Amino acid sequence: MRPTRATAALALPALVLPLALATAAPAAADPVPGGPWVCGAQPISLAGLTSNDELAAELARLAARHPGIVEVEEIGRSVEGRPLEAVTVGDGPRTLLVLTQVHGDEPMGTEAVLQLLKAAAAPTPAGAALREGVTIVAVPRINPDGWERYQDRDFADGLDPRRNANDIDLNRAFGPTTVDLALAPEAVAVQDLVEATEPDLVLDYHHQVSYTTEGTDDLVTMSVLWGTHPDVAPDVADDGRRAVAVIGDSLARSGHAEVTLYPRSDTATTARNGLSLDGYPTVLVEQRGQQEVGQKGHGALVREALVSMRAVADSLADGSFDAVSPGDADLLPERGDRVRENC
Ligand SMILES: [Zn+2]
Predict the structure, then answer these.
(1) CA–centroid distance, residue 124 to ligand 1 (Å)
(2) What is the distance in A from the centroid of ligand 1 to the CA of 64?
(3) Where are the domains of the chain?
(4) Pick the residue with more confidence: 201 or 5?
(5) Cα of 103 to ligand 1 centre, how many Å?
(6) rRNA-binding as a keyword (predicted)?
(7) Is the preceding omega at residue 83 within 30 degrees of 0, hence cis?
(8) From start to end of the chain, where are the E strands?
(9) DSSP code, position 130
(10) Which residue among 28, 68, 215, 298 is the one 20 to 30 A from 195 at the CA level?
């Protein structure tokens, strides 16, 4: 059920304040893995993250620095009129589409994809190999209106920064959605881009809260899942499973990360299932929450997201993606219990 404006407003304190404040101390039986954690009233500054104005400037700079290599195109406008920009780097035969920040308060995928775009545009042998093998298309920040509220901590209008300015959850506006799409121009812009670019793979970056890997006390770095709706074509689901396996492998090599499967849901109107139902393999990536790790954890979140998206881009570019066994995705552990800080 969609919360009313009033219930969304009532829910805001939990969003505005660190989650630590909204929760009691853990019960003695709860697992309490190491951090980093945000404790008590420790303020979390979001000033170091890319604002909407900075994002527009950054993309313009990238295009100006690499003419003919980086293309930036406005694909629509948000409810409040902010530009939605798609960036294309490379002209390889496979197309990877990276979506970030469809929920306005889930920002780190945006920071990571900016780094991926810079690496792909770089005048280096690695950059050239990437561009020749894969066309990277990114929409860095699908919900700029939500981010504007969240980064500025401006909740005076009672809108949930996760949703768009018409109070729509954009991640329920895909596939056979019943959302009035006139109220969700951001989702329409993404849907149009998908149909225009026909991506071989879509990665959709989000944040969850803090969980352990099932059967362990280890904190989950990210949880991932392909299009699992029963009507998704088997070859489409298999490409999603290949991407999940590549992501799991890439972070296992980094030594510290815990990648799990995300709990299965057949909700058809998420980007993961909705775009997969349309024939575009789409993987949901849910990183640990930036509000729970605080500034100290931001660098790690960006690195982990970047490792995952770069590994998928590289595997598409060098052709190794097709040799990945879809069944390798099933080797990832399940996500376990939610855990809270122990401060
Ligand atoms: Zn999300």
Answers:
(1) 34
(2) 32
(3) 73-338
(4) 201
(5) 5
(6) no
(7) no
(8) 70-77, 83-89, 94-100, 134-140, 201-207, 211-213, 222-225, 259-261, 282-287, 335-338
(9) H
(10) 68
